[in-house]
Write a structure and sequence with these properties.
The complex is a heterodimer of chains A (283) and B (242).
Chain A (H helix, E strand, L loop, with lengths): L1 E5 L3 E5 L19 H9 L9 E5 L4 E4 L3 E14 L2 E3 L5 E3 L4 E17 L29 E2 L25 E6 L8 H9 L2 E7 L3 E4 L13 E2 L4 E4 L5 E4 L6 E2 L3 E5 L1 H7 L7 E7 L3
Parallel strand pairs in A: 10-18
Antiparallel strand pairs in A: 1-4, 1-9, 2-3, 3-8, 4-8, 5-6, 5-7, 5-8, 10-17, 11-12, 11-18, 12-15, 13-16, 14-15, 14-17
Chain B lengths: L7 E7 L2 E6 L5 H17 L3 E7 L2 E6 L9 H10 L9 E10 L8 H8 L3 H9 L3 E6 L6 E4 L14 E4 L3 E5 L2 E4 L4 E3 L2 E5 L20 E7 L1 H10 L4 E6 L1
Parallel strand pairs in B: 5-13
Antiparallel strand pairs in B: 1-2, 2-4, 3-4, 5-14, 6-7, 6-13, 8-11, 9-10, 9-12
Classes of the chains: A mainly beta (283), B alpha+beta (242).
Chain lengths: 283, 242
């Protein structure tokens, strides 16, 4: 068992999400930075879909009531294991009654903590991912107890230990043209391709809004399917990048689509971070 | 190919998905075509993970990144040209949804009926009369996009959304009407509340209806409202084949 002494700024349980249930209007969900998520499970030899904790901006304070092994990946963070400094991308061996104190995220805003065997919390609609309107809460609360499995662990030699420490400093966000991109005037297209954008304080698991406005003369469109990574242009000219917990349909023109890699990179960015779009084609 | 084909645009949407857009206005014929073609695609294309339907498009998601030499676009076009939607039968259900239109459950009914120059009674009659087509589900889990609102009830959304619209609230926004599956912010004019739960994440099929089903509303008293909500009575339906 893991006891949540303090939940941190926004910590939630995540796995790969709810792919296949969008015909009921259910968000995709799943870890925001899937790359860090995958590394966290790989380093413990967990199954690909094992549930873990996604920590945002500032991590939680935890007490362990059983022996286990954990791994941190993603954004750099000061982690104290019984008062001693611990590092990311290395297994941490936990004993009963151990305390873990997580600090603030640095160079990135989401840190992942996987647990040997994965968190054994309730599955709702085939996933353990927390999401508003689907699970009782969209994040973990103080005093919550998380069940874990008892499993044996052998240090994984070779490939897994060579995991790179990723850099989230890049401003480049790789995108493809969205279905409504060609309807924009060429001046506007050029502006989108060359301008630097700033992430507004309105950024969360559902969507990231950008501060700089774009002139929008596009007609309204009929509500249509959207994906995580779809960039919508609202009538007042705001660009909204949809993320993992976004609604599955939208009525604003879809002018860009982030690559899978770019969604993971953006997931590590936060308020006032800058970015520019690099438009690529599929060929 | 006996019937008229609507023009189809095939567009790669992401590394793993393709968007099909139909150059046609959303209406019942198009919905039936979308449902029938979705079935064809699901059973004929390899590696499909999911197809989602909206007013005039299908989004095809694949398990693996698409390769240039896959010729998927041609394959889809070929399937479309050889498919005859008039031959496909769609099995669907008609749902009867109870709504309490009493003032306590209808915060905007009085204001809206004044704007539309209708009595409460006339407004309720116009809302309960049509058979609505369930087009698809989106916005929130279990939120049904319905076609069929009477023109006399068209009314713009509120300028600023209400922060807390109740679970089950039935509203009108623009040319649309719908049921809020859960408490949420919302800009529609609330004319009643349904005691029926439209979305339940604990069920394997979390929403009772699907694309292609039909729905109508019927007026109930506050007493019936309380009884249905307390006993969690599911909506009743009859089967139909189009």
């Amino acid at each position: 068992m893991i006891e949540i002494l303090n939940p941190g700024w926004h910590t939630s349980i995540q796995d790969q999400g709810r792919m296949g249930l969008q015909e009921y209007g259910i968000p995709y969900s799943g870890a925001m930075d899937m790359n860090s998520f995958n590394w966290a499970n790989k380093l413990l030899n967990n199954s690909l879909n094992a549930a873990l904790l996604e920590m945002t901006i500032k991590g939680p304070k935890l007490k362990f009531h059983a022996e286990t092994v954990i791994v941190f990946t993603g954004a750099q963070m000061d982690i104290k294991h019984n008062g001693n400094k611990a590092s990311l991308y290395n297994p941490i061996f936990i004993k009963k009654n151990d305390l873990l104190e997580c600090g603030a995220c640095k160079e990135g805003c989401r840190t992942y903590m996987s647990v040997l065997g994965g968190l054994q919390t309730e599955r709702i609609l085939s996933s353990r991912s927390q999401c508003n309107y689907v699970t009782k809460s969209g994040h973990i609360n103080k005093k919550r107890i998380l069940q874990i499995k008892k499993e044996s662990f052998e240090l994984n030699k070779g490939v897994a230990l060579k995991s790179p420490l990723p850099s989230y400093n890049t401003k480049e966000i790789e995108v493809f043209k969205g279905p409504e991109f060609d309807l924009l005037e060429s001046v506007t297209q050029l502006k989108i391709a060359t301008q630097t954008f700033t992430i507004s304080h309105l950024n969360n698991r559902m969507a990231y809004q950008l501060e700089e406005k774009i002139i929008n003369k596009l007609p309204e469109i009929w509500t249509t399917s959207v994906l995580p990574g779809t960039v919508q242009l609202t009538p007042n000219g705001t660009l909204i990048v949809l993320m993992r917990d976004a609604q599955v349909t939208g009525g604003y023109p879809r002018i860009l689509q982030l690559s899978n890699h770019a969604v993971n990179i953006l997931a590590q960015k936060s308020t006032r971070d800058m970015l520019h779009f690099k438009i690529k084609s599929f060929d | 190919m006996s019937q008229k084909k609507s023009f189809l645009k095939i567009f790669q949407y992401s590394e793993t998905s393709i968007l099909l857009e139909f150059k046609q206005e959303p209406k019942l014929d198009l919905l039936n075509e979308l449902i029938a073609f979705k079935k064809i695609l699901n059973s004929n294309l390899c590696g499909i993970k999911q197809i989602t339907l909206s007013y005039k498009s299908l989004l095809l998601q694949f398990s693996n990144p698409l390769k240039k030499d896959q010729n998927l676009k041609e394959e889809i076009l070929k399937l479309y040209l050889s498919f005859d939607s008039s031959k496909s039968k769609i099995k669907s259900k008609h749902w009867n949804i109870p709504v309490c239109y009493e003032s306590k459950y209808a915060s905007d009914l009085t204001v809206l009926s004044k704007h539309l120059k209708l009595s409460h009674h006339q407004l309720i009659e116009l809302h309960t009369k049509p058979i609505y087509q369930i087009y698809f589900i989106g916005f929130l889990p279990g939120f049904l996009y319905l076609l069929g609102l009477d023109v006399k009830l068209y009314h713009p959304r509120k300028k600023s959304p209400t922060l807390k619209v109740c679970k089950g609230a039935v509203g009108i926004g623009g040319r649309q009407t719908g049921i809020y599956p859960d408490q949420s912010p919302g800009g529609w004019n609330i004319i009643g509340t349904s005691p029926t739960s439209v979305f339940d994440p604990d069920l394997k099929q979390p929403c009772f209806a699907k694309s292609g089903d039909t729905l109508s509303f019927y007026s109930i008293s506050e007493t019936t409202f309380k009884k249905i909500r307390k006993n969690r009575i599911p909506p009743n339906f009859r089967k139909i084949t189009l």
